[in-house]
Amino acid sequence: MDRNQILRVSCGAAAVCLAALTAFTFAPQPAHAQDKPRKVVLRFVADFPPPPHPAALAMTYFKDRLPEVIPGSEARLYFAGALYSIPEAFEAMRQGNLEMTWMQIGKAAPVDPYAMTIVGPGVLTTVGAVDSLEKTHTYQQLVERLSKRQAIKVFGVGHMSFGMGVGGKRRYARPEDFTGKKVRSMGPVENATLEAWKASPVVMNFGEVPNALESGVIDGLMTSLGGWNGVREQAPFYTMGGAGAFVGDYYMISASRRWWDRLTPATREALEGLIKETIQVQKEYNWCFDKLAYDKYGTKDPSKPGVYWLTPQEVSAMVGAMGDSTVRFVKSKTPADVHPAIDSFVKEGRELSRQNPAGTSWIEKVDCSKHASKIVIR
């Protein structure tokens, strides 16, 4: 018999006991009980492939740590468009039908064209510059807009790779290598880049890529080193041109505010701490995966299969052939009042690249031996 039942038995029908019973039943709980995070069950959607992809390893880290941080909690992970495409996931979050995503920002453009304000190759071209994306005024404006207009909370940026590039059955190292080829794009802005190189862009979820390469539906693909690692047999040649010469579309970790705002303050605090921790781990995974993959598959001879870094002269040729195609495309798809923000991002990003030359970022100094047991290079 609990204490409420004891009170009822001893009081009987006496009105004098009613106040005591009410006071006991509805007495405020101790502060420590109110501040305790509450169990959550959430779905976490991404468009990159499952482990051993380094970003997927970071999501798995989040899943494993969540019940340690908030006992009884569960994160259900969905990779490579298994539950939603990015536009669908964006819409589902906006409506409160999905809790969290790790999304490529530019792919949300069909729902909100302002998502294209911080995209485009040739802007953030060093590891330190990519890591500093959140310092740009353009990014901060976008985060504010998504919160107010779309009911989506952005926690931060977690990139897929610091060595984005192009893979295929043959080498893509010069603008003319792309002529007439069908190349899987990573988003609408990259479509404009590929068209400037006279390729035919193909948009598809990563889960469709292996079969598309095998059947000849596509000739190559834009992806990260982690993505290439999963299709290396179908696309043995992979070319990188610095942190952002081929692809300049970044990944944000976000949640539906319709879900997030209903959580208790203690629960939100615990989740935000874990998300920040996960982003930190993911940056280290990405760098170490790229480094170890290049150590294993790197080649100085572009005629041979493997991972090839473009020379500065080759990068200049690719960027020169691209011209201002991406900026013109973004402006064609966005309202006129956002065009100054697009120009501002290009200016901010190139300045960050100047301020953060290769080799100066903390990421490039990470001791990768501590992650060796987690990272699998096939």
What does this molecule look like?
The strands form two sheets. Strands 7-6-8-5-9-11 form a six-stranded mixed beta sheet. Strand 6 (182-184), helix 8 and strand 7 (200-202) form a beta-alpha-beta unit. The protein is globular. Helix 4 (54-69) runs antiparallel to helix 12. With 378 residues, the protein is α/β, with parallel strands linked by helices. 43% of the residues lie in helices and 13% in strands. The model is unreliable at 1-33 (pLDDT under 50). The longest helix has 33 residues, at 265-297. The termini are far apart.
Gyration radius (Cα, Å) is 25 Å
The end-to-end distance, rounded to whole angstroms, is 61 Å
Q: Helix coverage percent of residues?
A: 40-55%
- Approximate strand percentage: 5-15%
Largest β sheet strand count, sense and barrel closure: 6 strands, mixed
Low-confidence stretches: 1-33
Report strand order across the widest sheet. 7-6-8-5-9-11
SSE arrangement, N to C: HHHEHEHEHHEEEHEHEHEEHHEHHH
How many DSSP-defined strands?
Answer: 11
What average pLDDT do the residues reach? Answer: 88
Summarize the structure.
The protein is an alpha/beta fold and 378 residues long.
